[in-house]
User: Which sequence fits this backbone?
């Protein structure tokens, strides 16, 4: 196991008590236990409090624009399949602004770990509803309550055969660390949604609120994450009981296997020689 | 004897307009003629009206011209629309199974499946190959080249199909020759070396490939798609990663991600697709990630005229994205320039770690020109490599005098590479330190100076002391060059000036070239004179007259000359 200090970076600017802190700790522990050094891993993020995550952890980082972390990460994987790529974004970023890229990622199944920090609120912009805010929640922008039901993103992921689907909870660090490890080791798109309390703008979905509701799906007798219909039921379950753990697994070929870098190596190492005399042959 | 002729092949989409154009144009080139092929089509797959124009001559042709000498009508509508353009020498070849009655008042030649290939199931093949043969007959050129070309083209479709094509071509040839019509081209001879027939986007694709492209992605949109196709069809042989993105926003972000990881990357789009990309353009500039973006113009705003041409996005591409950042804008005028500038764009993007644009358009994308291998010199493409010395602790955005920081790819060494869309410190982490902000902004903008030094490729034809200067940019090259040549034939001196490198604006080179002309005319394919405005902004020089075109069609020499005669 590597020392955790290896990953030290600049001081986080999150609110004290933010659910991102235990996530950062669990993530560092997971990297250390997997012997992944800072230079072995690339974190891609976008916009939101969760997208600051890579700055607070020493590793390769690409912090892009709102909703677009997945296309950047996909481009990276097409260019260099040797790099471990983890996307760290929020519910608003991925389910709202970047929804189309999520649908495309389900189809492509790139070997990317997609961690979605779900605090059920837009925190960076100070408290508007996100696609996962519970129906009826009152905000500054929705003073009479959010009219629509939340997006069941994990059910969508199961329905689209996302190759690994799980949910974690920031209040259960050890369990979360194990999920991080499994997600990083999974070959294919691993969607890990983490319930991440926002202590400033979400006064409903607190640590206590989640703690009273979450249960570990692997402790359910006989639960089989490869059983698609069962997984679908678990993915839709939200309310008095909220499942955490690995909900769905499906073996599928990964995107990278269809591209030349899989055999020819990273694009940066290619020796490109294309004599123009040969290129012109098609035009005589 | 005419020096060049215009052949218009028109019909409904799906009727065989392209099936005639392809083999005919290639056969003409192989026989020593210069051809220039343009396409005019609607945004539909079947039906509607489309036509191709093959301009054929004994001298190099870089532009379409007006008028029709041979009209091939596959349907009635083609006759109604184009017969009025027929020249005094003109002749109509028509499919009598589709056109009612003989066109009136003009010489004509009727073809039909029954007369060309009786008692076969050849159908359209008879008329299509027959028309190709008939045109060669009218031009008094040999038919054997066409016959062997049809053999090559249709061999894969079986012996019967190839045989129908060859027989129809020969039969059409005899019919054409029998017309004894005075359309033979003067001064045709077999070229000393084979010539190429190549489109603008094909030129750009070859330049990108020769220039070391390893990654291209995009979302389909006319007219950009033809470039993506031209690369993807060659990708299996030349090893390029090609990915169809889920939208244009994904396309530019994916290209940026690939480039960050060490690919030499290109993306592109058209019209509204580029509106979607603009946030990503700023990301490339802020994260200092090289990317080449092809913007294939079409008339707008919004969906506009999807299948027509335009030079209306110059202003947009110059300014796309929030705040100031360095960029380069290149606009090739010929497929050969497209080849050179595509490679240059990749090189500039990599050297200055910022977005570089190639502005093309529907006319440039689709028009095929006759060129030679000498127009496409060999290019060197070194692998994208880590750049510069890094010292002890690597910082992605270390401050340097020229604004270019040493580049490293993640995963190839001990350096930790941190890139950010936020304003950031030299090591890549987000910051709200406003002094750092000024330093970083200045660092990025410093790259403009280096880029400026790379610009200035101006094509000039004519002596410095000629008082009339006609200036244009991008794809209007050929039409304006020919208009100037025609003016000279009519004993009016004029200078031709073409800009293919537009930003950073080559101020000094342009001012030196223009040297206070008595009369400066700018020709461009937009309504408000976007280059003329840029010229004034950057040099203070004011065009005396701007000849504009924004009906969706490319410039012709005739259009330019009409514009000049009205104002000069």
Assistant:
């Amino acid at each position: 196991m590597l020392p955790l200090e290896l990953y030290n970076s600049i001081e986080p600017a999150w609110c004290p008590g933010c659910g991102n802190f235990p996530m950062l700790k669990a993530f560092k522990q997971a990297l250390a236990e997997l012997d992944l050094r800072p230079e072995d891993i690339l974190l891609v993020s976008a916009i939101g409090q969760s997208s600051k995550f890579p700055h607070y952890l020493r590793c390769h980082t690409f912090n892009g624009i709102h909703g677009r972390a997945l296309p950047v990460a996909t481009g990276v994987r097409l260019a260099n399949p040797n790099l471990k790529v983890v996307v760290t974004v929020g519910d608003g970023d991925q389910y709202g602004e970047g929804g189309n890229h999520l649908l495309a990622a389900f189809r492509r199944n790139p070997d990317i770990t997609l961690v979605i920090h779900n605090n059920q609120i837009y925190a960076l912009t100070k408290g508007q509803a996100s696609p996962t805010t519970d129906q009826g929640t009152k905000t500054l922008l929705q003073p009479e309550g959010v009219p629509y039901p939340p997006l069941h993103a994990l059910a969508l992921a199961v329905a689209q055969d996302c190759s690994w689907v799980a949910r974690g909870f920031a209040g259960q660090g050890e369990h979360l660390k194990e999920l991080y490890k499994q997600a990083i080791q999974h070959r294919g798109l691993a969607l890990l949604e983490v319930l991440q309390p926002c202590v400033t703008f979400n006064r409903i979905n607190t640590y206590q609120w989640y703690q009273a509701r979450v249960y570990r799906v692997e402790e359910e007798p006989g639960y089989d994450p490869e059983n698609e219909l069962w997984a679908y039921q678990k993915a839709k379950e939200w309310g008095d009981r909220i499942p955490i753990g690995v909900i769905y697994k499906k073996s599928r070929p990964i995107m990278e296997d269809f591209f030349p870098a899989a055999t020819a190596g990273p694009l940066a190492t290619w020796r490109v020689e294309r004599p123009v005399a040969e290129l012109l042959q098609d035009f005589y | 004897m005419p020096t060049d002729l215009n052949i218009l092949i028109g019909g409904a989409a799906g009727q065989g307009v392209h099936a005639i154009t392809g083999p005919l144009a290639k056969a003409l080139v192989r026989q020593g003629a210069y051809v220039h092929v343009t396409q005019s089509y609607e945004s539909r797959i079947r039906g509607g009206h489309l036509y191709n124009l093959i301009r054929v001559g004994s001298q190099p042709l870089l532009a379409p011209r007006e008028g029709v000498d041979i009209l091939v009508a596959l349907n009635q509508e083609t006759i109604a629309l184009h017969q009025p353009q027929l020249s005094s020498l003109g002749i109509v070849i028509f499919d009598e199974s589709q056109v009612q009655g003989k066109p009136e008042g003009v010489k004509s030649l009727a073809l039909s499946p029954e007369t060309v290939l009786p008692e076969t199931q050849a159908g359209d093949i008879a008329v299509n190959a027959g028309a190709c043969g008939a045109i060669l007959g009218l031009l008094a050129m040999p038919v054997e080249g066409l016959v062997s070309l049809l053999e090559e083209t249709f061999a894969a479709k079986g012996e019967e199909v190839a045989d129908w094509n060859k027989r129809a071509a020969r039969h059409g040839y005899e019919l054409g020759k029998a017309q004894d019509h005075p359309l033979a081209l003067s001064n045709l001879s077999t070229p000393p070396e084979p010539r190429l027939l190549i489109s603008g986007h094909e030129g750009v694709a070859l330049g990108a490939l020769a220039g070391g492209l390893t990654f291209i992605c995009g979302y389909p949109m006319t007219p950009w798609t033809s470039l993506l196709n031209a690369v993807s069809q060659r990708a299996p042989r030349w090893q390029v990663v090609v990915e169809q993105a889920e939208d244009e926003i994904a396309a530019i972000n994916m290209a940026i991600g690939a480039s960050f990881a060490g690919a030499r990357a290109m993306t592109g789009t058209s019209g509204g697709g580029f509106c979607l990309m603009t946030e990503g353009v700023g990301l490339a500039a802020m994260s200092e990630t090289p990317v080449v973006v092809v913007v294939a113009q079409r008339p707008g705003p919004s969906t506009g005229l999807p299948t027509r041409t335009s030079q209306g996005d110059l202003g947009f591409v110059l300014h796309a994205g929030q705040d100031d950042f360095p960029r380069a804008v290149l606009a090739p005028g010929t497929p050969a320039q497209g080849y050179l500038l595509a490679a240059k764009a990749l090189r500039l993007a990599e050297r200055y770690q910022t977005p570089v644009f190639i502005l093309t358009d529907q006319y440039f994308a689709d028009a095929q020109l006759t060129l030679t291998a000498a127009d496409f010199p060999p290019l060197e493409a070194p692998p994208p490599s880590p750049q510069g010395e890094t010292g002890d602790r690597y910082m992605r955005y270390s401050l340097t005098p020229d604004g270019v920081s040493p580049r490293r790819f993640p995963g190839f060494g001990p350096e930790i590479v941190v890139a950010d869309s936020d304003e950031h410190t030299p090591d890549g982490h987000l910051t709200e330190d406003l002094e750092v902000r000024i330093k970083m902004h200045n660092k990025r903008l410093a790259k403009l100076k280096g880029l400026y030094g790379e610009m200035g490729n101006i094509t000039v034809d004519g002596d410095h002391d000629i008082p009339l200067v006609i200036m244009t940019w991008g794809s209007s090259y050929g039409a304006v060059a020919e208009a100037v040549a025609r003016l000279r034939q009519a004993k009016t001196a004029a200078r031709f000036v073409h800009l293919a490198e537009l930003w950073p604006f080559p101020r000094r080179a342009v001012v030196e070239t223009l040297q206070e002309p008595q009369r400066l005319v700018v020709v461009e394919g937009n309504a408000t004179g976007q280059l003329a405005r840029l010229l004034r902004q950057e040099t203070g020089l004011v065009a005396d007259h701007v000849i504009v075109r924004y009906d969706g069609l490319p410039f012709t020499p005739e259009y330019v000359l009409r514009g000049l005669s009205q104002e000069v």
